[in-house]
Amino acid sequence: MKVLLVNGSPHQKGETYNALSLVEKALHEKGIATEWFWVRNKPVRGCIDCGQCSKTFRCAFSDDVCNDLIEAILNADGIIIGSPVYFAAPNGALCALLDRVFYAASTHGGLFKGKPAAAVASCIRSGANSTVDRINKYFSFSEMPIVSSSYWNMLFDSHSSIGFDERGHKTMQTLGYNMASILQKIS
Predict the structure, then answer these.
(1) Cα–Cα separations (whole angstroms), residue 73 to 83, 167, 168
(2) pLDDT means per 10 residues in the chain (187 residues)?
(3) Maximum C-alpha span of the chain
(4) 49 vs 37: CA distance, rounded Å
(5) First and final C-alpha spacing in the chain
(6) In 3D, which of 153, 144, 156 has the Cα closest to residue 174?
(7) What pLDDT is recorded for position 158?
(8) Distances in Å between the alpha carbon of 67 and those of 6, 61, 64, 97, 125?
């Protein structure tokens, strides 16, 4: 079994990566393999509602990582999407990408139905709940079971005034354990 870890930050090894790495460690402890997908720091176009995806279940545009992410999700048993919090919301490029990914493959094709998923937010102060909520909506609308943890799936980053986020670390670990448990039960 394999979980896809989607780093929705423009920083490949930043705080979102650190949060997802904590989840990855817990998944590995439970015998679950992982694969990473970084959305990169290159321009991502938004959906233009051209309708082409209703026939192919893939985006008509192939000049960014949209269709690569669709394939990566299809090849995984579960998915965890992490985002930094910008202005109390997920990274805008990530949202543009997820709009296209889920519109093409899920709204039209139902291709992700039943695949367990979770959202993770890394932040300095506020906005984590709205970030997780926004990402979870992609899963809800796609009939994907949402995996929870022992608290909100957020990690305060190292620049936060709270210092080391012990609760956040425990939350990421529990999220990994819960994802592993769900995958093992459905396999």
Answers:
(1) 17, 29, 26
(2) 97 94 98 97 93 95 96 98 94 96 92 98 89 97 96 80 80 97 95
(3) 50
(4) 25
(5) 8
(6) 153
(7) 66
(8) 14, 8, 8, 10, 33
Q: Say what the pTM is.
A: 0.95
DSSP symbol at 129: H
CB 53 within 8 A of CB 60: yes
Q: Say how far residue 15 (Cα) sits from the centre of its chain.
A: 14
Q: Encoding tokens for residue 10?
A: 């423009």
User: Which residue, 124, 127, 99, 91, is CA-closest to 10?
Assistant: 91
Sign for the CA dihedral angle at 17, 20, 24, 25 comes to positive
Show the DSSP H helices in the chain as ranges. Answer: 15-29, 53-56, 66-74, 92-102, 128-141, 166-186
Using alpha carbons, list the distances in angstroms from residue 176 to 21, 29, 137, 148. 10, 9, 20, 9
What is residue 121's predicted lDDT score, i.e. its pLDDT?
A: 96
The DSSP H or E segment spanning 3 is strand 2-7
